[in-house]
Recover the amino acids of this structure.
């Protein structure tokens, strides 16, 4: 019998990305939708599943789903790539365009999975720093791009966990300066007032990623996609994705969801108004907070350690995200916008704790 081989050295340094899951009544830690999809969606999906040829492989390149998504966004089906959550979309991108000897650029603080997936795929990570107000200075962009010549440059708009959408001129500047592909992660795109989607085209080295996990209330389904140049999309299907990686049930769910766009937009409108209500309430408390274009808010208690406040909230059965050990976020917590009742419970608990 052989011995267990050591893990790849470059995996050893990865911390992993986990959100503490504790039993609480009010769960505001992972930016999911607090509301399920409409009953008619679930009923339609059950009906579709009952009639499924489960013994057959699914459509390998998701033709029908891609046609629907292309239609939704005014692009071509050849410009749509689909995978099991947008994290897998990013993994496929880095398998195809990153890898040993190449670098991916990120600007901290930002979504931790960009750097984590880069490392998983053997891609070096070049980190830039956002300013104290978490905007992205042009001089820092130029420094990182010049030093690392990354084949992939990540932006996240709105940025998780800081909340703001990247201004259009910043995306344009990064696109102008980046020597390789620019990825704009728009997991929260529907909450923001503008999108980079209008800049996608076959001659532009830009891809925009979206997910069903947040606004579509389908985190449990694991479905995400990318919109970008046809040549990039073709490379992902042919070189990076496993055969039949998107199962038939998910393809059907993804198509069916798009028939409930009005309901999705209603949920987004509710969450945006609740976000503004929470922001107004936070402004009256002894904490620092930042404007958000997403379904979450970042805040930093002034007089108490973030970790202690997090624990006190858990003791009151409210779970938020503890970001206090993340790069550049000492003392910070992130709260997902929930239902009005959940948000009331959060605000009441927070006021008591502070
Ligand atoms: C939640 C989130 C995702 C979603 O990942 P899925 O794999 O689609 O669930 C992607 N990017 C960012 C920035 C996120 O916050």
């Amino acid at each position: 019998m052989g011995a267990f081989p050591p893990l790849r050295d470059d995996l050893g340094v990865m911390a992993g990305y986990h959100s503490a899951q504790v039993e609480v009544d009010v769960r505001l830690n992972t930016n999911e939708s607090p509301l399920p999809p409409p009953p008619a969606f679930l009923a339609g999906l059950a009906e579709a599943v009952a009639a499924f040829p489960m013994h057959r492989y699914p459509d390998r390149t998701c033709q029908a789903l891609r046609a629907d998504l292309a239609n939704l966004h005014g692009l071509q089906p050849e410009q749509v790539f689909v995978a099991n959550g947008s994290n897998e979309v990013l993994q496929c991108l880095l398998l195809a365009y990153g890898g040993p000897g190449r670098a991916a650029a990120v600007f901290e603080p930002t979504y931790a999975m960009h750097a984590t997936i880069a490392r998983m795929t053997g891609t070096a990570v070049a980190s830039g720093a956002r300013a104290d107000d978490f905007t992205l200075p042009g001089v820092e962009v130029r420094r990182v791009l010049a030093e690392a010549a990354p084949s992939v440059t990540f932006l996240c708009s709105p940025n998780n966990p800081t909340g703001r959408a990247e201004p259009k001129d910043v995306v344009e500047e990064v696109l102008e300066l980046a020597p390789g592909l620019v990825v704009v992660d728009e997991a929260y795109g529907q909450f923001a007032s503008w999108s980079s989607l209008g800049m996608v085209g076959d001659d532009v080295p830009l891809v925009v990623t979206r997910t069903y996990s947040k606004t579509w209330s389908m985190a449990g389904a694991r479905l995400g996609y990318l919109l970008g140049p046809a040549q990039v999309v073709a490379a992902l299907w042919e070189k990076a994705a496993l055969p039949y990686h998107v199962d038939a049930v998910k393809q059907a769910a993804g198509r069916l969801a798009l028939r409930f766009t009005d309901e999705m937009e209603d949920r987004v409108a509710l969450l945006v108004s609740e976000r503004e209500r929470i922001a107004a309430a936070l402004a009256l408390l002894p904490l620092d907070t930042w404007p958000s274009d997403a379904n979450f808010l970042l805040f930093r208690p002034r007089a108490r350690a973030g970790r202690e406040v997090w624990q006190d909230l858990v003791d009151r059965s409210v779970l938020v995200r503890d970001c206090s050990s993340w790069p550049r976020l000492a003392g910070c917590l992130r709260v997902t916008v929930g239902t009005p009742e959940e948000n009331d419970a959060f605000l009441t608990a927070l006021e008591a704790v502070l």
In short: The longest strand covers residues 103-108. The chain has a mean pLDDT of 96. The pocket of pyridoxal-5'-phosphate is lined by residues 31, 85-87, 111, 156, 160, 185, 187, 211, 213-214, 219, 224 (CB under 6 Å).
